[in-house]
Every structure is written in C-alpha cells, then in structure tokens.
Write a structure and sequence with these properties.
Blueprint lengths: L23 H8 L5 E4 L8 H14 L4 E2 L2 E2 L1 E4 L5 H6 L15 E5 L7 H6 L4 E6 L11 E4 L9 E3 L5 E3 L1
Parallel strand pairs: 1-4, 5-6, 6-7
Antiparallel strand pairs: 2-3, 8-9
C-alpha cells in the first residue's frame, strides 16, 4: 500500500519495468524546468538494481534537463545518517576482505546496522557497541559504551542531500 502523504506524489512503480513506461510522467519530466528523480537507497538491495541504474542513465539522455551544467536532477536518498558524508570522504562499503573471521566487532554509531551477516563469518565475535540510541545493533553487544548524539556536540555534518551543516 502507498503511504498517506500530505503532498502530491506520482508513484510510478517498484521495479525497472516501471521506468520504461512513464506515460504522463514522461511529459512532466520533459516540460519541467528543473526535473528531479529521487532514488531511494533500497534500490541497491533490489534484485534488478543494475537494470534500474541503467534505466536511470537512459532517462538522463531522454530528458537532458535532468542533468545540466548548473543542475543535477538525479538524487540518491540514503537511509542512514551520514552515509553521504562517508561516500564524500571515500569510504565505500565492501565485503569482508579478510579470510580470517573477526574476533572483535566494534559498532561505532551503527544504529541502523544489522550485524547478523558478520556472525555467519564469525560465529562468536566479541561485540562492542558505542552509540546514543541503543538501537538494533546494541542488542548484539557484549559491552555497550555511551556516545553523544550529533545534536550534543559541535562539528560539521553532511545531510542526505550532501550539503555540509555546521552545528
């Protein structure tokens, strides 16, 4: 079911084929001065993610106003705090690079992280959780350490748009 939102949304579908048959929405993209497509990070976990990204690339050719010298209308909305900032500084998540199972798992601010995948490779690591929410990952911890929320300390933060915010 679609969410009950307080603003107008044109839901076009949940898979790559939805992007191939835009009909009325295609007319809107063509006529918009600054068209925008927002892609949720859930696409990365979708079975046809490669096809979806390929189709988005095709859309930039079909609708040249999507990407212009002064406008980038293709946006990726990340679910986790500071994922965009991590990408900005060159941190790219990869699969475990070591063949040896880790004996320690340190979860620093990993409130939206599900460590069960690591437990397949390392059945009994010692888990340290340091964060301010005590969210899902804290349930796996052998030791829980406190941390200040970003609103409780000064710094530069990157929001989901990739814009730096000073706090």
């Amino acid at each position: 079911p679609l969410p009950d939102l307080n603003y107008e949304v044109e839901h076009i579908g949940n898979d790559a084929s939805s992007l191939s048959n835009l009909k009325e929405f295609g007319k809107i993209l063509k006529n918009a001065e600054r068209p925008m497509i927002i892609v949720g990070s859930g696409v990365l976990r979708h079975t046809d993610s490669a096809a979806i990204f390929h189709r988005i690339q095709e859309l930039t050719k079909m609708y040249p106003k999507l990407v212009q010298p002064d406008w980038n209308g293709i946006n990726f909305l990340h679910m986790g705090a500071s994922h965009t900032g991590a990408l900005d500084i060159g941190f790219h998540p990869t699969t475990m690079s070591s063949k040896k199972a880790p004996s320690l798992l340190y979860l620093l601010g990993a409130d939206d992280f599900d460590p069960t995948n690591f437990f397949n490779a390392a059945p009994n690591p010692f888990v340290i959780y340091q964060g301010h929410h005590g969210d899902n990952a804290a349930h796996y911890a052998d030791v829980i350490l406190p941390a200040a929320a970003y609103t409780e300390k000064s710094g530069i933060y990157v929001n989901t748009e990739g814009r730096a915010q000073y706090g």
